[in-house]
Design a protein that fits this description.
The complex is a heterodimer of chains A (about 130) and B (about 200). Chain A is an all-alpha fold. In chain A, about 65% of the residues lie in helices and about 0% in strands. Chain A has 2 domains: about 70 residues; about 45 residues.
Amino acid sequence: MTETLAPEPLGDRAPGDERPDRGGILPGLRGYLVGLALAAGLTVVSFYVARSGLIYAPAIPAALTALAVGQMGVHLVFFLHLTTGPDNLNNALALAFGVFIVALVIGGSVWIMYEMNAHMQPMAHMAQ
Amino acid sequence: MTAAAHTNDHAGGAHDAAHVRIVVGYGFWLFLLSDFVLFSCFFATYAVLRDATAGGPGESHLFDLTTVAEETACLLLSSFTSGLATLAAGQKSQLWFQVAMAATGLLGAGFLGLEISEFARFIGMGAGPQRSAFLSAFFSLVGCHGLHITCGLLWLGTMMAQVLAKGFRADIQRRILCFTLFWHALDIVWVGIFTVVYLTGVGP
């Protein structure tokens, strides 16, 4: 917001906006349809993996986490039109910082509480 | 700022509108990321309290995956139709914008109805938020998402009325951009909820 601002359009794109050369209705529709199909497929696989014995039981949480991260990626790419292009650098950097904080909060809480529970005296023993 | 505005006068209003759209969209994107951080606190709370049932009903006794699958389908389809509304807004098509937004609203309302009936069923079973730390965490996390959906539905109705009354002005287009960002973000949070809360909770 200073005098150094170039009169040319910023080399940035608003989050959620598509590339101008793909702004037509048919390429846009195709993007949303591909996103819907991929997200629906990943959802169906998630529900199937959770209920069936397809995957070794202790590995199910890890498989579900991987499927969920994949589906979030599909939403970001096909619905929010996030790319790794230079016009999306600010959007992607902000997202990376958000993911970093989310991982710290969730991972740190789970880790600390797991360790605390592991080092606690058993409740039944304390009650006597 | 005055110098920049002066330069933009020469470039014309179209560039100015594109610039404002980027700034508004980026600001709203930062808000959404801070909303993800808010949700991460509720997710962390749920993850550490999910076994603290205090002798009350646990996850596998309560959750019904058929309802969850219906909720997920409603929200995914509504995210898709809100994308179609963005395309219609880009084409300045009043009819298709209103149709796509109405479909988004109906699917969102369907999701909310399923969630409210699920909450009512739990409370009817004596598994309300006061029953155990697990249920407090469950109602906080899923209820916070449902509250976001409720606000989104109010916003959706407002956007339909504003486009009807004011047309596709640049400022209205920015609000449509922010609304669809918000709606897609809520679907991303729901992917986390159905995976962490429901699917991991029920087990095979």
